[in-house]
Amino acid sequence: MDEKRSKRLKALSTNGRMRQDGLFQLDATREVPPLPGGSAEPFFPRPLSWEGDEKRKAGNPPVAHQVYDGADETAPIPQAGLEETFRDSEERYRVVAENATDGIAIVTDSQSFVFVNKKCAQIFGFTNGDELLGLPMGGIIHPDDRDRVLETVRKSQRGEHVPPRCEFKGLRKDGGLIQAEASEARTTYRGEPATIVYFRDITERKRADEERRRLSLIAEQAPEMIVVTDNSGVVQYVNAAFLKNSGRKWEDVVGAHVLDCAAGVGNGSFYEALWARLQRERKWTGRITLKRQDGGFNEFDVHVSPMRNSLGDLLNQVVTCRDVTAEVILGQQLRQSHKMEAIGTLAGGIAHDFNNILAAIIGNAELALDDVPEGSGVHHNLEQIFQASQRAKDLVKQILAFSRRDNQEAVLVEAGPLVAETMKLLRSSIPATIDIRHRVEPGRDKIMADAARLQQILMNLCSNAAHAMREKGGVIEVVVREHQVNEDASAPLPDLPAGSYLMIAVSDTGHGMTANLMERIFDPFFTTKKPGEGTGMGLAVVHGIVKSLNGAVTVESQPGKGSVFTVYLPIVARETERTVQEATLPPPGGRERILFVDDEAPIAEMNCAILQRLGYDVTALSSSTEAFEVFASRPGAFDLVITDQTMPDLTGAELAKRIKSIRRETPVILVTGFSETMDAERARKIGIHQLLMKPIIKQELAEAIRSAMESRGKAR
Known about the structure:
Structural class: alpha+beta
Strand content: 15-25%
Radius of gyration: 50 Å
Number of strands: 27
Largest sheet: 5 strands, antiparallel
Low-confidence stretches: 17-76, 578-583
Number of helices: 21
Number of domains: 5
């Protein structure tokens, strides 16, 4: 058989089969191909001789009786040649199938295996394909998926459309489970309709997919911000934490350069230098500042690392950011607390000595005022000394209160003069480009408050207003007036009961705020200031103080139109005001016998003179041990003991205990400039009638004495 004829026979063998009668039956579903090698010459130069037109018309496969080789004479096809060619072709296909990387099986329409390659057997845990021959295909499918998969095969057999791939849980020979994928194609096998099924073990792929899904969920739910960029810095992925913390939207970030997401303090040179360093080193750890969409700033600890493939090629840069804004602010607060503690320690250390000095000034001024006629120049000068000393006394109290070393009680405060005084203090700390104005309208302005805390409200609000105008300047205006709140009050004052309130409005002409900012403006640690410019506690403190005074604070603002903070504090009822005013009557006197003890001899002598002018019989001593000896020798000779707390040998508290041990009913008034170990509650527990803070004015001392005498029931 020549080479040309052999090629034709091989081509023919791929398009039909050898029948038992020696004739070759063509597959009617195939088209006759051209000559091997791509020749345009038809495979058959002359038509095949068909086994009767009747069979062809009846739908039976055509049968080749002979094939012409291009000559006029016919050349019958030798049966032996066709069988050899067919066997060679079948062997080649079997070798290909057996060595395929996918599992290949042929199942009949009854869904039994008639061919299984080696890979398919391995997928399902068998040694070779022969173990599966004749077994039903459903045996390798888990019961959960069996009906679904077999129905897909049946649909294919019926010629219905089926998905290109079908995933299912497979059963291995040992009972183990795998994740498998199957696809199918219709064919004929030994003259019978059949289905070729291609199997793949996708267990590892599914496990990898699940791992990727798990990692994706971890990234999405992580509290840290995660950003993935390509090698050029273009953002390819950000997680939910980034969107939440930055206030940006996905579409605004993904596709943008990472530097566009960072807006630091000052110019962008820091971030440009950082990016240049990353291009060289690919790793970086540090802290950066990012600007939020609402204008605020957040601090982040950042770690940048490269993502590489198995060959070491750089694929991406991964940036993880942890928001440490709260920690930074807490650190600032801690440092501030330590600073204030140091100030408090200093203030406490000097308070006792300074108050002793003030006590001498105030006491002697009061004595001198009694000795000169009212209206004289000397009387006026002494009043100025007395008032200045009172301001110095209040200043010490404010320092102690500011350092949290003094508990301030609410007293009757006239807000108008206090506002005027506070504005003077603020003028020196606010830039000259900002004009400060204040107006106190006619009406009641007395409230129950602590003057220092009211000043703190004003200073925080004005400081906040000044910050809003620090670049372009502007006007701060403070208005004080009486305001009536009715039962049907509108929304800005929903929590205030009806009544009269002192309204303090602080307005500025700064940049204003958005609605989103106003919702958070009183939150602790929230700030739009850059790091180092503020802690975010100023307005939170204002809110806390106002609430503690049973008031309310509101804010109105629009971007570009400034802001107005309005504080409402209850005005003192007229009955309460009269009660407080009654306390300003001339100091009451008496005829009781008083033992006065202070280690500062001038103060002891001065108070002795003051009390004697009020009618009392006074014994003044500057030694606590001597005072105890005098009292112990004549306990019935004294109706009251007034003693300083901080003294050598015996403190005032120790002296009081010894006196009480001798004569329990003797009242004791304890006086201190400042003491870490003594407060009103501790004094009460050891039997002290009242604790007074130096410097003491005559009115305060006289009232304390009468209170002690009345409690004893021995007033004369």
